Amino acid sequence: MSFFENTRKPQGFGGKLMTKMMNSGHAKLSQWGFSNISAKSDAEVLDVGCGGGANIAVWLDRCRNGHVTGMDYSEVSVAESQKLNALAIKQGKCNVVQGDVSAIPFSDATFDYVSAFETVYFWPGLVKCFSEVNRVLKSEGIFLICNESDGTNAADEKWTKMINGMKIYTSKQLVAALKEAGFTEIKTYSNAKNHWISIVATK
Q1: CA-CA distance, 80 to 84, in Å (whole number)?
Q2: Which positions fall inside the Methyltransferase type domain (predicted)?
Q3: What span, in angstroms and rounded, lies between the C-alpha atoms of 76 and 63?
Q4: Which of 16, 54, 145, 170 sits CB 3.0–4.6 Å from 151 for a disulfide?
Q5: The pTM of the whole model exceeds 0.85
Q6: Distance CA 101, CA 132 (A)
Q7: 165: alpha, beta or left, given left = phi > 0 and alpha = psi -120 to 50?
Q8: What is the pLDDT of residues 142-163, one digit of tens each?
């Protein structure tokens, strides 16, 4: 397995290293993505593909009277996220679980917000996974997607060759899948200079 496969599913020592790199490397993208939404302080939040847990920490800061759940299908990511957010977990404001986005282990209408930072590239079937996100969101809940690659930069294709099962989507493709999954109001934001995209979809 190449080191970069750890972006898809962090494993072992390389995976631990990758989650730490993700936390610092994706910070600017996350900051930009978060700037496109306002969050209620008492919100119930799910961060899917939580990686090293940095975005869980941002959600906790934004929703100080709420609760944040992190979910990842990598044991290493779950452990790293738990370590980073240990205090909030101890205080009962946070939990981190292992789970699969194509069968999210939560009841219908549980969350006010679901976020997915740098992760939908690896999801097994967008419409199925987006439908699962839609299911666990409350009515008028928000789904925030943030990607560092917008599908228009040829240089990014090297990653799809390096990382098995990775697919880069354009905002048009993401919007079409979101509509098919039942989302109504969909706003797209782009940072053309960096080829970033952020999508805010309302249930």
Answers
A1: 6
A2: 46-145
A3: 26
A4: 170
A5: yes
A6: 7
A7: left
A8: 999 999 988 888 777 776 677 7
Name residue, tokens 């053309």: 192
Q: Read off the tokens for 185.
A: 């109001």
Is the pLDDT at 77 greater than 90, yes or no?
yes
Long-range contacts of 64-67 (CB under 8 A, 24+ apart): 65/41, 66/40, 66/41, 66/42, 66/93, 66/112, 67/92, 67/93, 67/94
DSSP string, the chain: --GGGGGTS--HHHHHHHHHHHHHHTHHHHHHHHTT----TT-EEEEES-TTSHHHHHHHHH-TTSEEEEEES-HHHHHHHHHHTHHHHHTTSEEEEE-BTTB-SS-TT-EEEEEEES-GGG-S-HHHHHHHHHHHEEEEEEEEEEES--S--GGGHHHHHHSTT-----HHHHHHHHHHTT---EEEEEETTTTEEEEEEE-
Tokens for 27? 């910070």
Q: Other C-beta atoms within 10 Å of 13: how many?
A: 10
- Residue 172 amino acid letter: K
* The token pair that represents 47 in the structure block: 């961060």
What b/e readout covers 149-176, taking b as 16+ CB neighbours within 10 angstroms?
bbbeeeebeeeeeebeebebbebeebbe
